[in-house]
Write a structure and sequence with these properties.
The complex is a heterodimer of chains A (328) and B (321).
Chain A (H helix, E strand, L loop, with lengths): L12 H6 L2 H44 L3 H6 L13 E3 L4 E2 L1 H33 L2 H14 L4 H20 L7 H25 L3 H9 L4 H12 L1 H17 L2 H6 L7 E2 L11 H10 L7 H35 L1
Antiparallel strand pairs in A: 1-2, 1-3
Helix pairs in contact in A: 2-13, 4-7, 4-10, 6-7, 7-10, 8-9, 10-13, 12-13
Chain B lengths: L9 H13 L4 H38 L1 H6 L12 H32 L4 H15 L2 H20 L10 H25 L3 H9 L4 H30 L2 H6 L25 H9 L7 H34 L1
Classes of the chains: A mainly alpha (328), B mainly alpha (321).
Chain lengths: 328, 321
């Protein structure tokens, strides 16, 4: 290329387009720093998985090769059998995983029984029935509701739902898994509503118009056209909410009534119980330093199981969400 | 076509034909509509009951002894107890989120939306961030406990004041927890910036960073601000990770001033933890102060949340119109 000199005599256009050295260096620095920032997220995941695997591994090792002091303190033998007994009581080396798993399942089931119909109903109303003005007011309110800290709903479940609803209607004594499940359900309603509404709004209006043009009522259009078309988004909403309910800690920690990190195995939602998350929180709040490392590390084992369960659910939900994005 | 066909199947057509013939007000239709509205209003009703409940419960505290409540630490008597240390901890957690999460989150978003090519690494980072957003908060507590508490333990030594479970450990843990929220929300905002804006800026010879700094970020600013506010609200309301990190439930030892930097190396607590602790107190005399603590946390968290939602709606509306 010919080096055309500009009127002021300062180099060729090529030089100008390339920018000066300072500019180029700045570009490099910026690119490097934003790349590092993005890679931090990978580092975080490695940190989470690493800390879980390391300590959960220590737990399994200590369980299969128990130390002398642990054996002295334990009432019975220590081995993998301790993961399957009839209660969760790490202090006494009782690590019955099914107590926590069933507890988590009960709470999640109750929560989803509350959150799915109410959240979906709210979403259908907002997306298909509400006029612009109503929508403009109610949707933000629902979104703000999504921001209520879980500890507040835990308090609400403990002091209001449990005495005023559960104990009166079901004749339960004191705290229960049911009360905790209802609290978690309230917490997840806005989540179900917001993802479902997004899914339904992604359904193109041409489908609704075609249905209306055939003479279908609003209800028929909703049930036979919009919901089927939005189904992958709705499934995603359900899975994300399930994952959230399983991972919810504070409501269960406060309202399910497991005392001093021990819980008996139960399948009755009206009884006291614990979940994976609540057991972790109780274990961590009771650290007085006198507890054996084996007992303490059970926290990480439970955390690892919880992490794997939610990871699988999140990956499945992610699949469904992306399917929504692609289809229209 | 694949989408249209199911609508024309026989069942639907029969239903539609039946509706046209029946005419008049369809009872099932009305019931359906009202039950939908009822499910929406139910959620709002619950919110109403909750707020009414805590506000009426907390009224004696705010009316009679607000100064004691704000200035005192947790004491053995409910009348003399306050939330000073909880407020202080929550304030410092907010500082950590603002200093660390905001710049880190925005930088990561800029990389993902403006710099990254569609490689396996980019896809991995994207999937990873979406998964991080779904990791239970209590698991972040495990990260905080293993990495920050143990790490800071090593740095600070095992003194009376700190055994690693410090304000710094809590702040770092929640800053990490809030990161995916910022990235996901800001990504949407940056994706919404029209390409014409980028092309115009490149056309006049701007470098990539100049385009980002003076065109993309300003245009996406409301969306990014929404993301940061949401992440702040999320972090300030979390209790579970702090329990794992070892935030003090119950009485907290020596007292540092609200802004005293030395507390970064000292044990800490925060509003959600204070509420957890108060909610577990058996006596009825603790109810008002628990409710008052909840009202304060709700005001802080919901203000950030409402600001985020309103901001987004406002700008979305403007650009559509």
């Amino acid at each position: 290329m010919t080096a055309a000199v500009l009127p002021d005599g300062s180099g060729s256009p090529d030089d100008l387009l390339a920018g000066n050295a300072g500019r180029r260096v700045r570009e490099k620095i910026v690119q490097a720093s934003v790349t590092v920032a993005a890679l931090t997220s990978i580092l975080i995941t490695i940190g989470i998985v690493g800390s879980l695997v390391y300590r959960a591994g220590q737990f399994m090792l200590a369980l299969t090769n128990p130390s002398e002091t642990d054996l002295e303190e334990a009432r019975g033998p220590i081995g993998l059998g301790n993961l399957w007994s009839d209660q969760w009581a790490p202090r006494f080396f009782e690590f019955d995983m099914k107590t926590l798993l069933v507890g988590s399942i009960i709470v999640t089931l109750v929560a989803m029984l509350v959150a799915t119909p109410l959240g979906l109903g709210a979403a259908v109303y907002l997306s298909e029935y509400a006029n612009r003005r109503v929508r403009k007011i109610l949707k933000p309110v629902l979104e703000v509701l999504a921001g209520i800290p879980s500890v507040v709903l835990g308090f609400f479940a403990l002091r209001w739902i449990s005495p005023n609803l559960v104990q009166k209607i079901f004749d339960a004594e004191g705290q229960s898994l049911l009360a905790a499940g209802l609290g978690v359900g309230l917490l997840t309603i806005p989540l179900v509503a917001s993802i479902s509404e997004d899914a339904m709004r992604a359904v193109p209006d041409s489908l609704r118009e075609a249905s209306a043009g055939l003479g279908a009522r609003n209800k028929t259009t909703t049930l036979a056209v919009v919901l089927p078309a939005a189904v992958s988004g709705l499934v995603a909403a359900f899975i994300v909410a399930t994952s959230r309910a399983i991972g919810e800690t504070m409501v269960v920690f406060l309202a399910a009534g497991a005392s001093g990190n021990s819980a008996q195995f139960t399948v009755n939602p009206l009884e006291r119980g614990s979940t994976m998350t609540a057991a972790m929180a109780s274990q961590a709040s009771g650290t007085d330093g006198t507890i054996s490392p084996l007992s303490f590390n059970s926290l990480f084992f439970v955390g690892f199981v919880l992490f794997v369960i939610t990871l699988v659910l999140n990956l499945i939900a992610d699949r469904f969400v992306r399917r929504v994005r692609q289809s229209y | 076509m694949a989408v249209i066909e199911p609508i024309l199947n026989r069942k639907t057509r029969q239903r539609v034909e039946a509706q046209i013939e029946s005419g008049g007000i369809n009872l099932a239709n009305e019931i359906f509509k009202w039950s939908l509205l009822a499910s929406l209003l139910f959620s709002l009703l619950v919110l109403g009951v909750l707020v009414y409940d805590v506000v009426t419960d907390s009224w004696p505290v705010f009316a009679d002894r607000l100064d004691v409540f704000l200035a005192n630490p947790t004491r053995t008597s409910a009348e003399e107890s306050g939330v000073f240390q909880g407020l202080r901890g929550t304030f410092w957690i907010g500082v950590f989120v603002i200093i660390l999460t905001f710049p880190l989150g925005i930088a990561a978003t800029v990389y993902l939306e403006e710099y990254a090519n569609d490689t396996w690494l980019t896809r991995l980072i994207n999937v990873n961030i979406r998964n991080l957003a779904g990791v239970p908060s209590v698991v972040y507590g495990i990260l905080g406990f293993t990495i920050f508490v143990s790490l800071l333990d090593g740095v600070l030594g095992d003194s009376e004041l700190s055994r690693g479970n410090t304000t710094t450990a809590g702040g770092l843990t929640l800053a990490i927890l809030a990161l995916p929220v910022v990235i996901i929300t800001s990504s949407e905002a940056i994706r919404a910036v029209p390409d014409s804006l980028r092309e115009a800026a490149y056309g006049v010879g701007a470098t990539k960073w100049e385009v980002i700094k003076s065109h993309i970020l300003p245009y996406a600013a409301p969306g990014i601000l929404t993301g940061t506010l949401l992440s702040l609200a999320r972090a300030l309301g979390e209790a579970a990770p702090l329990i794992l990190v070892g935030a003090v439930q119950g009485k907290l030892g020596p007292r540092t001033g609200f802004f005293g930097l030395s507390q970064l190396g000292e044990k800490f607590t925060a509003m959600p933890i204070v509420i957890t602790d108060l909610a577990k107190q058996p006596g009825a005399e603790w109810q008002p102060i628990t409710a008052a603590a909840i009202v304060i946390l709700l005001v802080v968290v919901l203000t950030f949340n409402a600001a985020a939602v309103l901001l987004r709606n406002r700008f979305e509306g403007k650009r559509e119109g």
